[in-house]
Amino acid sequence: MFEVRIHGRGGQGVVTAAEMLSVAAFLEGKHAQAFPSFGSERTGAPVVAFCRISDREIRLREPIQSPDAVIVQDPTLFKALDVTEGLKADGYLIVNTARSLSEMHLGEIVQRLPAGHALTVPATELALKHINRPAPNTALLGAFAAEVGVVSLESVLEAIRRAFPGKVGEANVEAAKAAHALVAAKATA
Fold this sequence. Notes:
Elements: E1 2-9, H1 14-27, E2 31-38, E3 46-54, E4 69-72, H2 77-80, E5 92-96, H3 107-112, E6 118-121, H4 123-131, H5 137-147, H6 153-163, H7 166-188
Parallel strand pairs: 1-4, 4-5, 5-6
Antiparallel strand pairs: 1-3, 2-3
């Protein structure tokens, strides 16, 4: 089973990201589960969402304590809480920022992970360019598909189209494709 924890703030599409990731897995014939955890339900409040992906039926229902991957939609959360708590030693960390990991002062976290398992993606900038909104969730899913490979880009794009039909969906698809291309280019560099 592959477990993903997504951290962000209310209004950034954290819950929707987990749902789209689970749909992408389902489209590939896998079992998937997505659910949120949040306290105060207001824009800007910290939000956590979870997604489990497996080849077998998923019976667990509790929050993910030891994720295989952590996606951070708002990098200011590093100052507020330990978003990488429980991240497995061979896990992945994807952070929404145009800054480098060293500029984010994440060297200690990066050293704990295998080479190439931590990266930054300017997802908000890609969202503003393609969607005209600072909603980084779909761009981060494109980056996740490129970096982790648990689901394909094609499945992520179809999940986005199902969540956001029409022009909005296609704009989100373009943001996801752009992030995927950035991460794929970093991997081959």
